Amino acid sequence: MAMDTILQKLGDEIVDVDEETFDVFSQSVPSRDLGMVDAKAEALELTIAGRDFEITQSPGVLQSSRGGGTTGAAVWQTSVRLAEWLAWSENPLFKYALLGARSTALELGAGISGVVPLVLRPRIKQCFATDQSYVLKALNDNVSANSKDSKAHGKKRAKPGLQSTISTFALDWENDNVTSVLTANGVELGSDLLLAVDCIYNYALIEPLVQTCTDICKMRSQKDGDGGIEAAPTICVIAQQLRQPDVFELWLQCFHRRFRVWRLPDDLLSDGLKENSGFVVHFGILRGH
């Protein structure tokens, strides 16, 4: 089975949170700022996996004192690097057939850029990008603009009929009933892939984030729409820039209680996410699934 194959490739499951935290932060972490690509630019030109993207940012919103946070108004290095990994020809999720043309993905805390759903779009059936409501207009604008104008270098562009759809909707981890919001937006059976990209940066968000991941993955315990067999468990991929060891450790303690967890080794990662890059990617499967 595909899941058995990738679990073998992942190697040892994480059993000791303290040991994992020590190992991760023993890496040579490059000195860099908070991790935004360019916080002051109103527009960014990015090339990801041979495609050009022009992303509009909101520096004014980022610098405002808006309640509930403003980090979604900028493009973050982790999103760019994970997008490169998702588009990578050797990506293990596609190579070992956990994901394919019929798969769905859901991103938490997508922010304004849309680069993750945009690179996934040619590879899967549907991608859902979620964040707080203040992000959605800019996110939709960037998805729309780059669906029309992004250029492929040396590759044939996919025919429109083969392109998956990208849907966006608001999801507030702290205040929403996750199951109700997803059901209202056509995700009543959860998704094959759940992504959280650089969502772990303060203590207050850890429990709501992990609970949201748990609620979404539990939706896969339902029968499929035809009353047939249960769907395969949701794959949860958490990518983050290494910043504060204590925040990371608290997240992993909380996540590990509910999920079986592996750290992706270098041979399953593209260059921008490998050891000593300052970034780390974990793979989780809800316990009991």
UniProtKB/TrEMBL annotation:
Pfam families: Methyltransf_16. Transmembrane segments: none annotated. Signal peptide: none annotated. InterPro entries: Methyltransf_16, SAM-dependent_MTases_sf. GO terms for cellular component: cytosol; protein-containing complex. One of its GO terms (molecular function) is S-adenosylmethionine-dependent methyltransferase activity. This is Diaminohydroxyphosphoribosylamino-pyrimidine deaminase. It comes from Dothistroma septosporum (strain NZE10 / CBS 128990) (Red band needle blight fungus).
